[in-house]
């Protein structure tokens, strides 16, 4: 009566062999004869009716102007493909139903390394090395945080100078976020877009958001850890470029940040890079997390050759 309704459990493909993320917007996600289809008026894809290989992708990113049927949600869940509702160009993550990976290896590795103080610090040091290309030998997490704070403070100054934006230091009042100057507002908005990309990566890997190695108190501590891997370059590139443009008064700073973030994330493949970074800092694939070398993750640096970094 309902052809193909139950799907084929035996056809499930391991996530390690899947093709990653599919971006969809301005259309309807539905099921026909047991197949996942997306009918779009035109957006990320040209207008048309597409059949999606739901068994061979890890996540569907569903953007604005879209709807999804109950059957589509059931089919995605049956085959372990996560559906994330995202903002324009993926700079916001509104919801992500729990991903059920075919292995608990990364989550177990995360718990094991988080639960022991010594290995928790080793992972934090690995994160620092990925950010700044420098292996630190301190055994004190507070010292590590202090070093990080000094480095990022100097990075703010250099980025402001590069973009020609007046900078009077990092100031943020949570009670009055719009009272900050343009560069600080832009930094706040840019940090949110980076957290969205990191949340996508955490959802796609099935790791645990609450168990951070540098951050501790937030329910999104690990998301914040991964987002911070790009705070010194991409966040500054996005924020100070948007602040400079917003000073002309043509568009609001939050809109400019979203536009620049979406373009930057697409060009640099930020979410896939963060997925690789999670596997690296947790030592996926049998590589120990310790004082070996800085693992060569391809994290691009902001362009310092001119006023506008592209």
UniProtKB/TrEMBL annotation:
Its EC number is 3.1.-.-. InterPro entries: Cas1 (IPR050646), CRISPR-assoc_Cas1 (IPR002729), CRISPR-assoc_Cas1_C (IPR042206), CRISPR-assoc_Cas1_ECOLI (IPR019851), CRISPR-assoc_Cas1_N (IPR042211). Gene3D superfamilies: CRISPR-associated endonuclease Cas1, C-terminal domain (1.20.120.920), CRISPR-associated endonuclease Cas1, N-terminal domain (3.100.10.20). GO terms for molecular function: endonuclease activity. Mn(2+) binds at residues 148, 215, 228. It comes from the Bacteria. Its cofactor is Mg(2+); Mn(2+). Keywords: Antiviral defense, DNA-binding, Endonuclease, Hydrolase, Magnesium, Manganese, Metal-binding, Nuclease. Belongs to the CRISPR-associated endonuclease Cas1 family. CRISPR (clustered regularly interspaced short palindromic repeat), is an adaptive immune system that provides protection against mobile genetic elements (viruses, transposable elements and conjugative plasmids). CRISPR clusters contain spacers, sequences complementary to antecedent mobile elements, and target invading nucleic acids. CRISPR clusters are transcribed and processed into CRISPR RNA (crRNA). Acts as a dsDNA endonuclease. Involved in the integration of spacer DNA into the CRISPR cassette. Homodimer, forms a heterotetramer with a Cas2 homodimer. This is CRISPR-associated endonuclease Cas1. It comes from Methylobacterium thuringiense.
